[in-house]
Amino acid sequence: MRIVVVSAGLSVPSSTRLLGDRLASAAVAAAGADPADVRVIELRDLAVEIAHTFTNGFPGPALSEAFDAVSGADGLIVVTPVFSASYSGLFKSFFDALSVSDPEALTGTPVLIAATGGTARHSLVLDHALRPLFSYLKAVVVPTGVYAASEDWGAEGLNARIGRAAAELAALTGVTPPAAADAVPRQVPKKDSFQDVTPFAERLAALRPGG
């Protein structure tokens, strides 16, 4: 299984890259794959070539290689920092350039969406920005997205979301071992309190004298 991580983090070290690495490690574990099959693409290293793509009409060598890696991935993990309540411009520009180069590059590709930000208030970026973008690119977006705010690092809950999302990604690639698939938590439906209804006539009869 070939997993490609696209990280739009700008700083070194980057929490965005850290989240991508943790998601990739969890996906490898869930799939029972070889860690050597993970490729990380740092968009900050491709920023100049991405900009040139829009002015000269074709990608440079490094960007072209990144496009090939993304389009050939069995599973894709995309992570962006949040800017102005949405994905970063660098992140969007990369996928814009990819879709111009090959409109079908992500068709049918399982994609795990993730984002980092300073506050949990931006967590909806997963559903109002990232999910629609990759649905438009005809990718198959895993049900669970992962958002990590500053306070999430080291806090309870982040590891569980990472594990669940990674297991879903591995399952969509078709290589999840049965044990890993069974480890994905499943929601137990709550009993409907209105399911067992006593007919009104029966209730009325119980109120009558001798009823």
Number of domains: 1
Residue fraction in strands: 15-25%
- The quaternary organization reads as single chain
Biggest sheet architecture: 7 strands, mixed
Might you state the CATH topology name? Rossmann fold
Q: Please count the helical segments.
A: 8
Give the overall pLDDT as a whole number: 87
The whole-angstrom Rg is 22 Å
**Approximate shape:** elongated
| End-to-end CA span | 69 Å
H/E element sequence:
EHEHHEEHEHEEHHH
Helix-strand category: alpha/beta
Give the total of beta strands.
7
Question: Which consecutive residue ranges, at least 5 long each, have pLDDT under 50?
Answer: 184-190
The second-level CATH architecture is 3-Layer(aba) Sandwich
Keywords: Flavoprotein, FMN, Oxidoreductase
Organism: Streptomyces sp. R17
InterPro entries: CE1759_FMN_reduct, Flavoprotein-like_sf, FMN_Rdtase-like_dom, NAD(P)H-dep_FMN_reductase
Protein name: FMN reductase
Description:
The chain is α/β, with parallel strands linked by helices and 211 residues long. It has one domain (3-207): 3-Layer(aba) Sandwich (Rossmann fold). Helices cover 44% and strands 17% of the residues. Strands 1, 2, 3, 4, 5, 6 and 7 form a seven-stranded mixed β-sheet that branches. The longest helix is centred in the first third of the chain and has 17 residues, at 15-31. It is elongated, with a radius of gyration of 22 Å. The chain starts with a strand and ends with a helix. It is an enzyme of class 1 (oxidoreductase).
